[in-house]
Each structure stands twice: as structure tokens, then as C-alpha cells.
Amino acid sequence: MPPELIAVLIAVSDDRPMVLTLEGGRLLPSGPLEAGHRSLQTGLRLWVEHQTGHALGHVEQLYTFADAPVDGGPDERRVMISYLALTRTRRGERGWRGWYDYFPWEDQTAPEGRALVQRIVRLLEDWAGRAPSAAGQEARRQRVALTFGLDGLGWDDELVLQRYELLWEAALVPESAPPGAAVLPGLSMARDERRVLATAMARLRAKIRYRPVIYELMPDSFTLLHLQRTVEAVAGQPMHKQNFRRLVAQQDLIEETGEVAPDTRGRPARLFRFRREVMGARRIAGSKLPLARPV
Amino acid sequence: MPPELIAVLIAVSDDRPMVLTLEGGRLLPSGPLEAGHRSLQTGLRLWVEHQTGHALGHVEQLYTFADAPVDGGPDERRVMISYLALTRTRRGERGWRGWYDYFPWEDQTAPEGRALVQRIVRLLEDWAGRAPSAAGQEARRQRVALTFGLDGLGWDDELVLQRYELLWEAALVPESAPPGAAVLPGLSMARDERRVLATAMARLRAKIRYRPVIYELMPDSFTLLHLQRTVEAVAGQPMHKQNFRRLVAQQDLIEETGEVAPDTRGRPARLFRFRREVMGARRIAGSKLPLARPV
DNA sequence: ACCTTTATGCTCATGTTGAGCATAATATAG
DNA sequence: CTATATTATGCTCAACATGAGCATAAAGGT
């Protein structure tokens, strides 16, 4: 069985991060590596274009997973080589889903997300109390505190996978919960796809801090508020407006188009475009965004 | 053909980063994923222990490579899932090689390394001039400037892979040079192993900036200068001594043992140990080292 | 003429970083 | 025994980055 190539294709539409899915949101585009593929990445591109009609822009490898061996099962294992891809949505394309539909607790810009985390923390504290030994209970509590930012640690938006794995272990998601048990809100997916999506979210959130990949998700021209909302949507965290602008300005990665955004409320905002030329010519010192990651 | 698991096992010995090799330094430990392996990582551990007798400590996945398809060759491709592993050398173990034996230009702490880069840059400028079009020449020059830190950009120690790939394209390494042509100093390896090693070096250099992985390479107790020399050896860059100490101190990741280093010249140095307990208990805000990455 | 809304400029306290001066505590050469 | 070399360690300073917030500008709507 050849390894499978699997893509997490991300776009942001109306300030919501979206992921391209198949089969009613249960699967991600994927297909086996074939002899004719010139490289892993070309194989991936072919599969995604074939299955979704969507061409890929920025692509990077994420992680390679193998499923657990089955006793008495086949000798061959399913190996998945996963990729993160960034694009823009096109009107009318089907299969796009909001990524917070799968991970509602990851959206800390919305009050519902924050309330959900409160609920989750209570459930996880119960779970921690059910550990067999006292040391085990303490270890579980510490893990909950770290991944969910308790005890003044603060929410770390990059711990998407760690949080998902914790919820899996605590049997709070349908993938691991016993049949009929209460589970958290949020769509699940087939096989390991939700884990792959979590990996992609974590990588993208980490990456926008130090590489200007956010512009892969922006249209040709945009206002500064639009850019900020996009970053906030990806990070799932609000930001300080003036500081955001100061930072973006000093990066010198965008320039004014000279136009002004149409149909806005309030004072009209200037439009900007990404200076794609500078990408090669300069080292990008740090596109570190004012996404305060607390101590 | 199942995917192959391949390990880059790193240790630092006498302030030199070492890599564990087989076959006279031509190969890295590796073996196919088998049905009995519980996971990719267990498979890797089994292979490395079997081939080298060395147990693995900290392990992380690096990247998955596929070799290019051969026209009329077999349908199946070789897929390599590579890992970075960190340990301590043990006296008398065979197969350890200095990683700068393979990449002499990556050691910018030594005058020879800096001189070699000067020579490489001249060769690459010739190569840039041989591009067919004027635009192609300019693109090549810009790439050389970026990867080797010309025009005041400064040396970026994380660009190990980019530099190796550039040298490959310019046919300055034995892997790509025509037979008999002059090539750069530095050992080469079989297959794609040198590329895998470059990937590992880049990852480790990046990682020591924001995670305390350097302590995986240290003995139980060490002086601050020993720690600094280890970081410098990995990064291939010198550091400011007082600032290094200030940073390490404020991280609060190490504590004094109360003892003093034996057989040193100069004023005796206090010994420290890594506080392994804090690893789980605290978020490591930033183990960012004073490795000035220039603008 | 006001109010709401968004855009934009500016200040200020605090923290971080790069550089270097100064002094302390050893061993060894003479 | 003193000078010198060598490493350890404490401390200062300027430049810059960061987080927070005040103030004002420019639109549309009541």
C-alpha cells in the first residue's frame, strides 16, 4: 500500500477560516502516491485538483502519520503524508467548512468559544480527579492547566493538537467516547482527519508569527482592519488595533494602492496591497504579530 | 516497498556536534516500517537500537522525502520518513562523525569556515554569471546573497538546507558535480543522506532558539561556559558571553549544584544542572538565545 | 448639530537586546 | 613572590521592541 497524500487546504472567507472537505465534511482531499508523480508535492497537487478542481498555491509538508497496526490485520499499514496549503476561496465552490465547526473551543475571539472552554475545563477537572493514583491526578491537572492556560498561564493558540489529544484521552470527543456518551460540540471527521486538521491549524497559527504567510490568504487589496480580522480569525485571538498597525507598517511588506475601501461604515480606510517583490529580496526579519502569547 | 525510517542522531562531544553513522560515515541508521511496529517512532527506535546499540532519547519527526521516479524503473518509490534524535555520546561508541566534516562551511565559529564561505561565494558568483538570461543571473545573485548573508544581510545559521541545495545546483558538491570536476571540501554520503543531515541541522539550530532542547545534549552537570560552547557548536556562531549568561539565568531552567568544575584554567566555574521538573510545569516562554540573527 | 463608527497619530512605561567596562579568583611563568 | 594569563561574574548603558491607552479625524445616519 503506497503512502497517501492528504491536504489541508485553508482559506479565509468573511473573516472565517475555512477548510476544503469532501463527503459532507467528513474527509480531506487525498490520494495515494503514484509511480508517475514527479514528487510528493506534485502528487498532492494532482489529487487535489482532480478531486476538488482547486489549484494549490503555497504548500508545505506538515507531518507523516501511520495508523495503529491491527492484530491479525493486513501486513501493510496506512501511512499519510499531510500537507498544509493556503489559498483564497472562490465564490460558489463547494465543500468549504469553517474550521471552528470542527474545533469550536479554538475560537477565543467569540464569547461562545470562551464559554465552551470554561465548560471543558470543568469536565477535564472531573476527568483528572478520576485518575487512579494521586500522582496521576496531579499530572492530569497540570496538563489541563498548561494546554488550556489556567493558573494565569494564558491561552496558547498554538496548542490545538495538544488540546484535541487531551479531549480524546478524556473521551470527550466522538472519536474516542463510548457509544451514547455525551460529547463536546463540534463536527467530527472520518479516520484521523480531525487530527490532521488540528496539526494544520497549529502550524498555521505558529507560522503567521514569523513568516508573512497571512498574505497568501488575502485578496489583492485589503484594508488594515481586514488584515487584522484575518489574523485574528486564524489565531482565534483578538489583537490591539493600533499596535497591529504599527507592526504591520514597520514590516514594510505592504503598500498603499492609493484607493479607499468602498461601502464601509465610519471613516473610509485606505487600501493596501502585498509587496510580493520583497519576498525574495529581503530576509523577513520577523512578521511577529502582536498576538500576545502570555508568560 | 514500505516507507523507510531514518534517524539523524546528534550528540555534542568536546564542543563538536556529532552524528551517528554507519558504513564508514556514508549512511544513517535506517530501516523499513514493519507490520509489528506499534508506531513510526517505535519502529525507528527498534532499528536504531538494533543497528547501533544506542537507545534514543528526545526524538522528533523531521520531514518525509521521496526519491525521484526513474523512467522504466520500478513502480514503487523509496519514501523516507526522517527523524531528529538527541543524545549524549558514550565513550568508545563507533560511528560518530563531526557534522562539520560533512558541512565545513557551516562552522562560522572557526576562521577556516569563514574563509571557506568567502571562497564559495566567489564560486557562486561565477555560477550566477553563467545563467542564460540577465534576469536569471540577477535571480541567482540574489539567492546567493540571501543564503550566504551578503550585502549586509548577515549569516543565517538556519539556512543549512538552502545552502546545500544551492551548492548542489551549482554542481559544487560531489553528488551533482560531473565526474572529475573540482568540488568543495566536505564528506559526502550515500543516496540523499546528506540532505537529511542538512535538514536535521537546520531544525536543531532553529529549535534551540525557542525550546530548551540544548539540555538534551548536556551531561548531568556543566558549567555555563560549557553550555555556551555547546550552543555555539550547534549554531556554528559565536555568542556574547555575558549576555548568554544573563539570558540563561533569567530562564530559570538551571540551578547550581553547589560544586565547582574540576581541572579548569582561570577562575573556577560553578556547576549547574538542568531542572528537568520545570519542563512540564511551566510554559517555556522563550529559550531564545542571543544568537543574533541579523536583519 | 450631534452620535456612532471606524481610521489613524502619538505618548509612555516597561521589557529586551547588543555591547562593553570592571572586578574577582584561579594557575603558572619568571 | 610577583606579574601575567585566563576564565568567571557583576553591572551599566543606549537602542529598540512591546503593551496599553489617549486623542483626533473622517465618514454616515438621526
TrEMBL record, chains A, B:
Annotated NrtR DNA-binding winged helix domain residues: 215-274
Matching Gene3D superfamilies: Winged helix-like DNA-binding domain superfamily/Winged helix DNA-binding domain
Coiled coil (residue ranges): none
UniProt xrefs under Pfam families: WHD_NrtR (PF21906)
Domain of life of the native organism: Bacteria
InterPro entries linked to this entry: NMN_biosyn, NUDIX_hydrolase-like_dom_sf, WH-like_DNA-bd_sf, WH_DNA-bd_sf, WHD_NrtR
Protein name per UniProt: NrtR DNA-binding winged helix domain-containing protein
Organism, as annotated: Gluconacetobacter aggeris
